[in-house]
């Protein structure tokens, strides 16, 4: 006698401080593929969840920014290794989320891009730093330092490659991140959260919030403990208001075109530079 098995519907959680909590609001929403087929239930983050994510990012910042550039590079390269091990899962999720036949090439590009940014960690100081000429018995050096906690609004259409393209430069520079993922296509970001949790990235360095950017954006833009905003995937209708809110706490704001860029193009160091501060140090010469 045959039996019909009822599948277990997944309900994915948030990723905050290295753990996977439910939304404090208890809310979730359904995610479907491009043909309307149910895929999973996903936690819908609230204002309180966003505050918790910022607190976790702030707590993790001293350790992550204080690590050597070489160590950060090794940690981020480990993320790419784990992504490679789950390549088939990423391909399946990108294909169902984006309805594309290019899923394999997009996933491969996302892994390669993570490696590319990992390789920049110990080269940033050489490229962006300087030994400054001065008149007097002093040395003057300019060195790049991370800005702090960065709130990232991930691309809404490019569920993995776009996400990696905006997240990797933030953490490669020594910052910590609070990411609001694509609302309709969150599954690749959730799998990336699982990759981060099982690699060597310290808890709190990256925090993933699934849900509505419209709901979360104003609170992150006005949060006094957020140092920078990436508006790539922010709602176009809210961008001006978000910039005004960010000005209240003197945040850095990365402004991007209202239409998403072609993420398949090779990046440059613009996004790395966007979240770095230039620190100049004077030191007397020895006798």
From TrEMBL:
Pfam families: Aldedh. Residues 29-253 form the Aldehyde dehydrogenase domain. SUPFAM superfamilies: ALDH-like. InterPro entries: Ald_DH/histidinol_DH, Ald_DH_N, Aldehyde_DH_dom. GO terms for molecular function: oxidoreductase activity. Keywords: Oxidoreductase. This is Aldehyde dehydrogenase family protein.
């Amino acid at each position: 006698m045959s039996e019909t098995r009822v599948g277990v519907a997944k309900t994915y959680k948030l990723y905050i401080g290295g753990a996977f909590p439910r939304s404090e609001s208890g809310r979730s929403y359904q995610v479907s593929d491009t043909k309307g087929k149910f895929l999973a239930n996903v936690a819908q983050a609230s204002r309180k969840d966003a505050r918790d994510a910022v607190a976790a990012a702030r707590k993790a910042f001293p350790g992550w920014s204080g690590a050597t550039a070489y160590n950060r590079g090794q940690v981020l390269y480990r993320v790419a290794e784990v992504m490679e091990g789950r390549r088939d899962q990423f391909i399946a999720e990108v294909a169902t989320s984006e309805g594309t036949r290019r899923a394999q090439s997009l996933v491969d590009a996302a892994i390669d891009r993570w490696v590319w940014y990992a390789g920049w960690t110990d080269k940033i100081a050489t490229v962006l730093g300087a030994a400054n000429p001065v008149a007097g018995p002093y040395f003057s050096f300019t060195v790049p330092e991370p800005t702090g906690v960065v709130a990232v609004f991930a691309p809404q259409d490019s569920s993995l490659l776009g996400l990696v393209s905006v997240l990797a430069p933030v953490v490669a520079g020594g910052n910590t991140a609070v990411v609001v993922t694509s609302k309709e296509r969150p599954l690749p970001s959730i799998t990336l959260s699982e990759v981060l949790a099982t690699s060597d990235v310290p808890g709190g360095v990256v925090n993933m919030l699934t849900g509505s950017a419209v709901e979360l954006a104003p609170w992150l833009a006005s949060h006094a403990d957020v140092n920078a905003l990436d508006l790539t995937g922010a709602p176009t209708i809210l961008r001006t208001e978000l910039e005004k809110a960010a000005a209240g706490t003197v945040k850095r704001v990365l402004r991007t075109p209202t239409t998403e860029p072609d993420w398949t193009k090779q990046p440059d160091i613009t996004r790395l530079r966007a979240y770095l501060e230039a620190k100049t140090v004077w030191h007397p010469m020895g006798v």
